Amino acid sequence: MSILLEYESHFTKYLTQTQIEALRILLWLLMIHKQVRIERLAACFPLPILYESRRKHIQRFLILSALSVSLLWFPLIKSLINKEFKIGSRLIITIDRTQWKDKNVFVVAVIWKKRALPIYWLLLNKRGASNLAEQQALIRPVLRLLREYELVIIGDREFHSVKLGYWLKQIGKKQQVFFAFRQKLPTNYKKTNKDYQTFEKLKIMPGMKKFLTEVSVTKEKGFGKFNVGAYWKRKYKEKQEEQPWIILTNLATIEDVLKVYKARTGIEAMFKDCKTGGYNLEGSKANTKRLTSLILLIAIAYTSTSLKGKMFRQTH
Question: What value does the mean pLDDT of the chain take?
Answer without folding.
Answer: 88
